[in-house]
Amino acid sequence: MPGRRNDIPKYDLQQFRTVHRMKAGDALGFGYNALPADQYIPGFELYSSSGLVRSIGPMRSAFYRISFTVTGTLDMQIGLEHYRHQPLTVACTYPNQIFSKNNISADAFGYYLLFTTSFLDEVLSSGRLPVEFPFLSITGVPLFQLYAEEMGACVEWLKRMDIELHSVRPARDRAIQLYLYLLLLEIGRSYERQGLDGVTEGPAGHGLVSRFHKLVGEHYLSRRQVSDYAQMLSVSPNHLNKVVKEVTGKTASDSIRELLGQEARSLLRYTDKTISEIAYQLDFSDPASFNRFFKAESGETPLAYRNRHR
Fold it and tell me: Range of 279's domain?
């Protein structure tokens, strides 16, 4: 294993390639996996799911991710929320979210693209991306279904990007920026058609739990007490615990511990830090306390988990 990996795993585009792609590559020759390195476009990558590894994460990325499941199924977790990809699913994550994918079915096929916050700066003024496209923001719905014709239109934009990627025509970068913007508009029309831009809280308590989960996803490394989140949500800790338990079957403390467990698994899988270093980084009083926590959360010791994923 080259070098010593010490940082909390948060991948930029170049680092991420070795994590999400099999060495054998993309047999279809679509997107970046068949692209010479000197033709890469800074801040943007495009792939088909051919050549995708079978399990990813938990980890963070420093860029936006949009995936399109055309056929098959897979499981995805974004923060504390669990999702099931089905055919005609689009899923989005934004920078710094912790996520994982697994249980990818044998017949699963789709496309995904990755782009940095600044890639569309020439098309959208800085900071406008999550405002104009709320499915790329913390307040948005990150995964939803498309009509078949909507998915077909999205795939056409992806194929146009692929053609541009493999061309040497002038203004190639600009064309892909514009195609990406048009793709986002296509997704946004479906999002608006389904009323997802004005989602209400639904059954009693679900809105509070959703807001709680999103806050935990932002602050779990620095705020470990239920009272911290109750204050941010303007409710009492007892009320927050009661509602979270009613909706999810878990306590609010369980939710905080779950994300902390994801962080621990990410550090064990994707860094070379010792178990003691990870224990102290995550603010445990000693490695023994961390071992007890991890075994309770994961059903195995930190060392067993690391060995199983190396």
Answer: 206-308
